[in-house]
Design a protein that fits this description.
The complex is a heterodimer. By secondary structure, chain A is mainly β. Chain A is about 0% helix and about 60% strand. Chain A has no helices and 11 strands. By secondary structure, chain B is an all-beta fold. Chain B starts with a strand and ends with a strand. The chains are: A mainly beta, B mainly beta. At the A-B interface, strand 5 and strand 9 of A face strand 5 and strand 10 of B.
Chain lengths: ~110, ~110
């Protein structure tokens, strides 16, 4: 069983839809990371959170430590949100990555 | 200028050739990492280094070697490239703490 699992693996949406990507993990963590990988390949960090909720623009990340679950929400999705979204947890000297959720948003 | 740079960005090489991928960073971080990414498998750790004298194997180190020439430079070598090493390779750096990592732009390697 993978230590970090994401769902869904693939997601398509129409512009304007509300998007939810889920991440479940089996290890104890101090923080969870959400990253975005653009079609060109570059990877950027979106959020690092250890409790509650964080918001940046149209992106919202939540975490429930007791349930070992995190969600990434995108409100009013736009084609430029099309990317692979990856969650990762530290364990213990390195990050363990989920396999990513590929999101495509169509106009 | 980018904080983490990788060279080359793209490389095509033949089976059996030795190839080196280079990574440089200006973030002043002690920790550096090499990952490979294959479709459907996510990022997998090849090697990581916490300082110049501390180098550790990751989950898929066979067929690879690394050199930490300075705090800012971490190179990955494929001693004798094989086709199943065709992948996208990323270098990353982090400070201490919860390991937020900063990624280079990636090197797309094709072994024919």
């Amino acid at each position: 069983k993978n230590e970090v699992e994401q769902s869904p693996q693939n997601l398509t949406a129409q512009e304007g839809e509300f998007i939810t990507i889920n991440c479940s993990y089996s290890v104890g963590i101090s923080a969870l990371h959400w990253l975005q990988q653009h079609p060109g390949g570059g990877i950027v960090s979106l959020f690092m959170l250890s409790s509650g909720k964080k918001k940046h623009g149209r992106l919202i990340a939540t975490i429930n430590i007791q349930e070992k679950h995190s969600s990434l929400h995108i409100t009013a999705s736009h084609p430029r949100d099309s990317a692979v979204y990856i969650c990762a947890v530290p364990s213990p000297d390195k990050l363990i990555f989920g396999t990513g959720t590929r999101l495509q948003v169509f106009p | 200028d980018a904080d983490v740079t990788q060279t080359p960005r793209n490389r095509i090489t033949k089976t059996g050739k030795r190839i080196m991928l280079e990574c440089s960073q200006t973030k002043g971080h002690d920790r550096m990492y090499w990952y490979r990414q294959d479709p459907g498998l996510g990022l997998r750790l090849i090697y990581y280094s916490f300082d110049v004298k501390d180098i550790n194997k990751g989950e898929i180190s066979d067929g690879y070697s690394v050199s930490r020439q300075a705090q800012a430079k971490f190179s990955l070598s494929l001693e004798s490239a094989i086709p199943n090493q065709t992948a996208l390779y990323f270098c990353a750096t982090s400070g201490t703490g919860a390991y937020e990592q900063y990624f280079g732009p990636g090197t797309r390697l094709t072994v024919t």
